[in-house]
Amino acid sequence: MMENRIKEILTESGVLQSGHFVLTSGKHSEEYMQCAKVFQYPHFTKELSEMIAAKFKNSEVDMVIGPAVGGIILSYQVAESLGVMNVFAEREQGKMTLRRGFGIKEGQRILVVEDVVTTGGSVKEVINLVKSRGAIVVGVACLVDRSSNNKVFEEELYGLYHVNITTYESDSCPLCVKGLPITKPGSRNLVEKESYYERNRKF
């Protein structure tokens, strides 16, 4: 029941999108997720955050931390649901750190929260930051888990929504073969893509 509700929220808020997309990697896909779109709706954000908080309500969490920028809003709302402090980490000269007077005390029990986890690079940096201050990472939570069930952290990873998006190389994309128009996420421009056959007729 909860899984259906999560998908309903992500669909209604425009997080889950279907079509023909060029991803950051250059690969193509018929699915795309823009997690930030759900944060436009405070009532949805609160509902999802309460689901995450419920998982860790007995973990004696002292603080929630999220990496900037994707984890800022979600980590704040999870902290509010748990009734604890919240901070966020951000990059300074390429390194994830605490700024703005934020601090972590030795022995604090900290939950790391991110919007989406794929390879987990930013989250790993935050985990290392927390541990370097002598604090304890009680777990990692995210709205969308795209890690394909890989063990990306030593700590437990709790994702509300799990997805494995199929991608294609640009020169062997079946969506291109069909001549479907391409959307570049983050761009206002809709790019008409030549079909695979049209491209190869030029040679």
TrEMBL record:
<dbReference type="GO" id="GO:0000287">
    <property type="term" value="F:magnesium ion binding"/>
</dbReference>
<protein>
    <recommendedName>
        <fullName>Orotate phosphoribosyltransferase</fullName>
        <ecNumber>2.4.2.10</ecNumber>
    </recommendedName>
</protein>
<feature type="binding site">
    <location>
        <position position="118"/>
    </location>
    <ligand>
        <name>orotate</name>
    </ligand>
</feature>
<keyword id="KW-0460">Magnesium</keyword>
<feature type="binding site" description="in other chain">
    <location>
        <begin position="114"/>
        <end position="122"/>
    </location>
    <ligand>
        <name>5-phospho-alpha-D-ribose 1-diphosphate</name>
    </ligand>
</feature>
<dbReference type="InterPro" id="IPR029057">
    <property type="entry name" value="PRTase-like"/>
</dbReference>
<comment type="function">
    <text>Catalyzes the transfer of a ribosyl phosphate group from 5-phosphoribose 1-diphosphate to orotate, leading to the formation of orotidine monophosphate (OMP).</text>
</comment>
<dbReference type="GO" id="GO:0004588">
    <property type="term" value="F:orotate phosphoribosyltransferase activity"/>
</dbReference>
<feature type="domain" description="Phosphoribosyltransferase">
    <location>
        <begin position="41"/>
        <end position="151"/>
    </location>
</feature>
<dbReference type="InterPro" id="IPR000836">
    <property type="entry name" value="PRTase_dom"/>
</dbReference>
<dbReference type="GO" id="GO:0019856">
    <property type="term" value="P:pyrimidine nucleobase biosynthetic process"/>
</dbReference>
<dbReference type="InterPro" id="IPR006273">
    <property type="entry name" value="Orotate_PRibTrfase_bac"/>
</dbReference>
<dbReference type="GO" id="GO:0044205">
    <property type="term" value="P:'de novo' UMP biosynthetic process"/>
</dbReference>
<comment type="pathway">
    <text>Pyrimidine metabolism; UMP biosynthesis via de novo pathway; UMP from orotate: step 1/2.</text>
</comment>
<comment type="subunit">
    <text>Homodimer.</text>
</comment>
<keyword id="KW-0808">Transferase</keyword>
<keyword id="KW-0665">Pyrimidine biosynthesis</keyword>
<feature type="binding site">
    <location>
        <position position="146"/>
    </location>
    <ligand>
        <name>orotate</name>
    </ligand>
</feature>
<dbReference type="InterPro" id="IPR023031">
    <property type="entry name" value="OPRT"/>
</dbReference>
<dbReference type="Pfam" id="PF00156">
    <property type="entry name" value="Pribosyltran"/>
</dbReference>
<keyword id="KW-0328">Glycosyltransferase</keyword>
<comment type="similarity">
    <text>Belongs to the purine/pyrimidine phosphoribosyltransferase family. PyrE subfamily.</text>
</comment>
